[in-house]
Task: structure prediction
Amino acid sequence: MSRLLEGITEAFRLIFSFDPELLQIVFLSLRVSLTAIIIAILLAVPLGALLGLKPEKRTRFINKIIFTLMGMPPVVAGLIIYLLLSRQGPLGVLALLYSPAAMIIAQVFLAAPIVAGLTMVGIRAKGTEIEETARSLGAGSTLAAWTVIKESRIAILGAIITGFSRVVAEVGAVMMVGGNIAGHTRVMTTAIVLETRRGNFELAIGLGIILLMLSFIINSVLYNVQRGGLKGAR
Amino acid sequence: MFTLNGIRFKLLFGLVFWAVFFFVGGCAEEAAPVEEPAAEEEVVEETPEQELIDDFIVLATTTSTYDSGLLDFLNPIFTEQTGLEVQVVSQGTGAALETGSRGDADVLLVHDRVSELELVEEGDFVDRYDVMYNDFIIVGPEDDPAGIMNVDRVTDAYNLIASGEYSFVSRGDDSGTYRMELRLWEDAGLDPEGQDWYQSIGQGMGGALTMTSEQLIYTMTDRGTYVAMRENLDLVILLERDPVLFNQYGVMAVNPDKHPHVKYDYALMYIEFLMSNEGQELINSYQVNNETLFFPGYGLE
Result:
């Protein structure tokens, strides 16, 4: 119990010390995970919407694949990206292993199925209805599809929050493809693993608390946007 | 009310697009430095003392050298002298050797002499040197129910543990420490794998010590990690200084003939730094809790 209290003290000491190394770790965590979720949104929201608007029978197989990938263990995603990016792998010439770019690729791989799957489910819930209404009001197919996406924004934001939570908290993939290099690819989760391994439990739990606080701030922002959407939908 | 939300939605997406360009741009920049042209290396060779090289090397090493803080002590000195940044990837010895064999690192600092010499023979690595050594110890609870304190040989200690079925934590992670532990069980004529009292945990040394301490049982550890973590552990040293417990570290470069992209010249500079009189003295001078963790040179015999 005392270690937990020491950890909380340590967390606040760390925050107010503005330690440049810590700031760098925090900034890299945010940069990697936010970039990953944004790329995942660009890839997966259109895909999820497309699948959600198609009749369920025609997308059954691909749905199952997406749902399976939603449960991909991070370390397996990391291993796959590692083998692709390794010098002996097919993409080795890019020299991306042990770089933030490699970490982003791995996290996109983890987040995209979640965003796509949940978007699809959300749109399927009432997509056809909205699409028909839009078409009856004279909208073309592109405009109708855009209307469906816009009207399903609560579900889409939920999908984004879930995807972001997954990548910001995972350690297996970024450890594997980033290598936890100090000042270069060390993020909050890999720093927590390292400090735990070194027996610095106070520092580790302190970092954990900072990670939770950041998550809280980001989710608060997203939640407020989502609540706005809720009012509009009523 | 609807338009307000529409605006908010558009604003969010505007932010998202702006952020993509910002973040992706930043990352592309970071990933860019690949290889420096050979011309610069020649300049460096002419004036090695003054010219600082604006580049980095990747060092694949074991958890023990990194977690003990040794590399945090040595590498800044090397960087100050050469300008080269050392990016450390710390893994188990097995993983570090694999990383090096695949050409994903430039230089290695590991401790499994037998495998290292094999891989040099096979042409994966070149310029291997015995750079330093430390030693392994058997730690356990102070009341020592197995009576390890009374014997001097690891093989005897392992026989006491096995015959009394006292719980023992094994790394089980293909690290140099684990490979050493397995060889010692073999020397003792025992096969603990699969026994109830033998906990193969697949974690690093820190994790293994924590688990050993929480359960008040036995494990074999390198001295460095134990000394660094001692204040958080309820474990004491029960057996040390058996000659078979010396743990030799080797430093070697990834073979540039096999992996032309590696920064062989820079790897050599790092090896030369560690093997120089200054480097060896620095290793000897590094202490944690007033205890020397690594001894320079060749420690066997």
